[in-house]
Design goal:
This protein has about 425 residues and is an alpha/beta fold. About 45% of the residues lie in helices and about 25% in strands. The strands form two sheets. Strands 3, 4, 5, 8, 9, 10, 11, 12 and 13 form a nine-stranded mixed β-sheet that branches. About 0% of the residues have low confidence.
Length: about 425
């Protein structure tokens, strides 16, 4: 099979590795528009379950990724001048630059052609490729050519955020919540890279805080200086590092949740962020991209036609993503409604931060939810009841809340 993959991120590179391992006679070329080694990004996070999957599908790349990752098992939250620590599951961090270098090296060793500085915005006319993979990210040019067919929809989040680096090496997954005269601003930081040279620091706040602090008008240097001052307590004098764009602007964004009605067209298939995105606060973007590659490789190996394989890949991944996308949506909403939780004692607030994926949490008073969750943690029967009742109760409460809003809107429209 001849495969052309557009996009040299984790999804595209790992798919090429898996397909070459399945059949060395596959002719595979990965096109990446940027020069080799020029990727933007600080660190990415993942968990043991991903390593186990990588070990199953390609032990050599799994060992390389684990060797160059840092680990943590604690979470720390700083709220004003109070600190609380929680011991949890082991997490991993690796620099995005390092991850891509490892996957590129492995792909080359298997005979994959990597073409850097090669931008492809449309499937070339008359191409003889059996399969074209659009792994070119959330702004996919290949997908954009057929936007009506794919049914692409984008939902922008509320809170501005920015990805930064720092030379401060966090020994735990660290949260810091700072109260300002214009509202709360917070960051989450985690170490990454071999020997832990740096950390990632994601800063987020409500739009009102963003404007009140002047971050909407500040250039990168001015904004970084302000953020360093606000988060001095956790940075310990270390600087924050931005992207340093040529125009000096700060790279603030609002998260774009992208979905598609279908993921393939003829022999063109979407992979990774070109197909779907999930809010960064659950730290699953790279994991989901690699899992997409695994699912697509599995589908292509199964007997049957190419359309059947692509349909099977889409069906499997849509099903697997349901719970993750729900968790991401609730996680984003937790941060958007931070004032609801931030006045709790820090250890209770941190406990509910860990429960932010729950569909029931937005509908239960935070103090009551904390007590119920603590009781459920001590009694297995209550845990089972919570797992069964929680989603059902959340759906009922959501429907009631939506119905009340609709009736209110109708009433207001009639009065007007």
């Amino acid at each position: 099979m001849k495969v052309v993959c557009v996009g040299g991120g984790p999804a595209g590179l790992y798919l090429s590795i898996l397909l070459k391992r399945q059949d060395p006679s596959h002719d595979i070329t990965v096109h990446e528009r940027d020069p080799e080694g020029s990727t933007y990004g600080w660190g990415v996070t993942y968990w043991r379950t991903l390593l186990d999957k990588l070990e199953t599908h390609d032990p050599e790349s799994a060992r390389a990724v684990e060797e160059h990752s840092v680990r943590w098992s604690d979470g720390v939250a700083h709220v004003r001048d109070l600190t609380t620590r929680h011991h949890g599951d082991q997490g991993f961090g690796i620099g995005r630059h390092r991850l891509l270098a490892l996957l590129a090296e492995r792909a080359r060793s298997l005979g994959v052609r990597l073409e850097y500085g090669s931008e492809i915005t449309a499937v070339p006319a008359g191409t003889d490729a059996d399969l074209v993979v659009a792994a070119d990210g959330v702004h996919s040019a290949l997908r954009g050519r057929h936007a009506d067919h794919f049914g692409t929809a984008i939902d922008s989040g509320r809170n501005p955020y920015i990805w930064l680096g720092t030379t401060k090496v966090f020994d735990a997954f660290t949260f810091a919540f700072v109260e300002t005269g214009h509202g709360w601003i917070w960051c989450y930081g985690y170490g990454y890279g071999y020997s832990g040279e740096h950390s990632t620091c994601v800063v987020e706040c409500a739009p009102e805080t963003f404007a009140g602090l002047g971050l909407d008008r500040a250039g990168e240097a001015e904004g970084l200086a302000l953020l360093e001052k606000l988060f001095a307590g956790v940075l310990d004098g270390h600087p924050l590092i931005g992207r340093s764009p040529a125009d000096g602007s700060a790279q603030w964004l609002t998260f774009r949740t992208l979905t598609n009605r279908t993921w393939y067209r003829d022999n063109l298939v979407l992979l990774g962020d070109a197909a779907h995105t999930t809010h960064y606060s659950i730290g699953a973007g790279t994991t989901l991209a690699l899992e997409d590659a695994i699912a697509l490789a599995d589908a292509l190996r199964a007997p049957g036609s190419l359309p059947a394989a692509l349909a099977g890949y889409e069906r499997r991944r849509r099903s697997e993503l349901l719970s993750v996308q729900s968790a991401a949506r609730h996680s984003a909403e937790w941060y958007e409604n931070l004032p609801r939780y931030i006045q709790l004692p820090p250890h209770r607030m941190f406990a509910l931060l860990g429960q932010r994926h729950s569909p029931l949490l937005p509908y239960v008073p935070p103090q009551l939810y904390y007590g119920l969750d603590k009781a459920c943690g001590q009694l297995e029967a209550l845990r089972r009841l919570k797992r069964w009742l929680g989603p059902r109760a959340a759906r009922a409460l959501h429907a009631r809340s939506s119905g009340a809003r609709e009736r209110s809107d109708l009433g207001r429209g009639a009065r007007e």
